[in-house]
Design goal:
Chain lengths: 196, 401
């Protein structure tokens, strides 16, 4: 059986196999067009990629990504857990920042590294959390502002945020950020009452 | 105090000052200082004073604004009001009740007609007012949800709109109750009935139907928005809890975290996918790709040279046991030059050559092959052969220069 896939299939494959997310609210017009293509051809593309063991995920969430369903060696799981720990710390830091402004660090939120830096200066809790992030080798940067910039760079590289205004250094949180939030929300805590 | 002699005079004044009024109306959300206004009027103090006296303008402290009656009139008329005014609707309903009572009690026909007229216009006003309030609520909730960043303010405003919605819903109940149960209303409809009244009543009923549907929709929207805020704040709490468990090294123990991470097969927690493919033979054979191949190979060579610290493959034992201190090598280039200048047949040249070290026959064959292949372009390969020790050697001669 032959499936007629959109002509952008190669671009979509290249972009998603890099571990990127395609978000509906990206500022990049090329990526926005790719998102639309995936949205309009979801069934066909899902079927097509599935045959080469790439699962197109994220229907009706505002973002698409690839996953691979195969059994992993224990080593990989250990590494995944380590990476997840780091994301928990980063997420906790960002949410604490949002909360300190009575705002939600979530999809559509616009911020700048300087905003975060200024809040760290007046909020000791936030400052502690920022210092704690130094334990990760790529965030082991002495200057707080540079460490914050590195965090934002990681978020951008992982396509969770997008640059909003180059001149003012503003960033926008994309729909894909919901992936991290969702991961947290599906964790169930046993015996919740016993935790202070 | 109304200082004008007639409405006409008021309108004339307003018309004369239309530029200033327009300016102040556009800036009604901010406060304009006396100095700024003076600047705008090019230092015409007299004009400001005059308008203040006529109550067109109002001064509070140092700020000047349009009189609230004028401002409200424009806002109402232009439908730009952003304030939800349930109290006014409430007032209209009460006033309708009063007039219905007066209409029933009044015996003089002229007075009765006057009340009838007022009742009809109040009915129309109520319909208009309800719709306007609904539109304002609807726009406001969407506006607040989309633009208000501070979730405490957002929560407060949404709850506020919800209570206004409930109040409006109650007022609509009251109107319906009035139409059904109020004896004076029924008396009025029976006695004062004309086309105009029926039209107004139909409009009012239609308005009530639309309003009910809209209010349900608004309620759903508010609930949805409030819910989203709730979900977000629950998520914030959850992250805090998860983070605390992680720091206490209890995350694996107390949650299904490991299972979730195990099942997550996205690439966020995995190294980037890389694909290794071989170059296709047709690609390698295509001459147009030669520059790319050369570039790659150059890069490869350079890299090797720069690195310089790579370990070589292990040397086999047998080679290490050789205890020679010096190794005899032949400079092929010079050897070739000697051959070219001497001329003759390559194998004869090699066999007769007076080497510094004694070479074995097999070494001479190796040398023959090396020279022949390395400098093949400088030689002529003839079709003749010469045989030495059962091996045939091609007759190779230097090219004539």
């Amino acid at each position: 059986m032959s499936i007629s896939v959109p002509i952008q299939t190669n671009e979509i494959f290249d972009y998603l196999t890099k571990g990127n997310f395609l978000s509906e609210d990206t500022n990049d017009t090329v990526l926005k067009a790719l998102y639309k293509t995936v949205e309009n051809n979801f069934e066909v593309l899902f079927d097509y990629f599935q045959r080469i063991n790439f699962y197109l995920e994220g229907k009706e969430t505002g973002y698409f990504y690839f996953s691979k369903r195969e059994k992993e060696p224990n080593q990989t799981i250990e590494n995944k857990i380590k990476t997840a720990y780091k994301w928990i710390d980063i997420l906790d830091f960002l949410k604490t920042f949002g909360k300190s402004r009575n705002e939600n660090f979530s999809q559509g939120y616009v911020f700048s590294p300087a905003d975060i830096f200024n809040h760290c200066k007046v909020n000791a809790l936030l400052q502690d959390k920022l210092d704690e992030l130094k334990k990760y080798s790529d965030l082991n940067i002495e200057k707080p502002m540079e460490r914050i910039q590195k965090i934002v760079e990681i978020l951008r590289k992982e396509t969770f945020v997008d640059i909003q205004n180059e001149h003012k250094e503003d960033f926008k949180v994309l729909a894909s950020f919901g992936y991290l939030e969702n991961l947290i929300s599906i964790i169930t805590i046993k015996d919740e009452e016993n935790i202070d | 105090m109304f200082v004008f002699n007639s409405i006409k005079e008021l309108i004339e004044t307003l018309y004369k000052e239309r530029e200033l009024i327009d300016f102040l109306f556009n800036k009604r959300q901010k406060s304009i200082s006396y100095e700024n206004l003076l600047n705008y009027l090019e230092d015409n103090q007299e004009k400001i004073q005059n308008l203040l006296e006529k109550s067109i303008l109002n001064q509070t402290g140092n700020s000047i604004e349009l009189d609230s009656r004028i401002k409200d009139f424009f806002e109402n008329f232009a439908d730009t009001a952003k304030e939800i005014n349930i109290e006014y609707t409430d007032y209209l309903i009460k006033s309708l009740n009063e007039k219905l009572f007066l209409f029933e009690e009044e015996k003089r026909q002229t007075k009765k007609d006057e009340y009838a007229h007022k009742i009809k216009s109040t009915i129309r006003e109520i319909a208009k007012n309800i719709i306007r309030n609904i539109n304002i609520i609807r726009n406001s909730i969407e506006d607040v949800y989309a633009t208000e960043k501070n979730f405490k303010i957002k929560l407060f405003l949404l709850n506020n709109f919800d209570s206004k919605r409930i109040a409006l819903d109650k007022l609509i109940d009251e109107i319906e109750h009035l139409q059904r149960e109020n004896q004076q209303w029924q008396f009025f409809v029976k006695t004062g009935a004309d086309d105009e009244l029926f039209k107004s009543i139909i409009i009012l009923r239609h308005t009530i139907n639309i309003s009910r549907r809209n209010l349900i929709d608004i309620q759903q929207k508010i609930m949805e928005y409030l819910n989203q805020i709730k979900v977000q704040s629950q998520l914030n709490e959850k992250i805090q809890k998860i983070k605390a468990l992680k720091d206490k090294l209890l995350l694996k123990e107390m949650t299904n975290f490991v299972e979730i991470i195990k099942n997550d097969s996205s690439f966020v927690f995995q190294p980037t996918q890389t694909f290794f493919t071989k170059l296709s033979i047709p690609f390698l054979q295509n001459e147009t790709n030669l520059p790319i191949l050369l570039k790659v190979s150059n890069k490869h060579l350079k890299k090797k040279r720069i690195k310089g610290e790579e370990l070589t493959d292990e040397i086999e034992e047998q080679f290490l046991s050789i205890s020679e201190k010096q190794r005899y090598t032949i400079n092929l280039e010079r050897f070739k030059q000697n051959f070219v200048s001497t001329g003759g047949n390559l194998i004869d040249f090699i066999l007769d050559y007076d080497f510094e070290n004694q070479l074995e026959f097999k070494d001479k064959i190796t040398l023959f092959c090396k020279v022949a292949t390395t400098f093949n372009t400088d030689f002529i390969f003839t079709d003749e052969y010469q045989e030495y020790e059962n091996i045939e050697f091609a007759v190779i001669k230097p090219k004539k220069q």
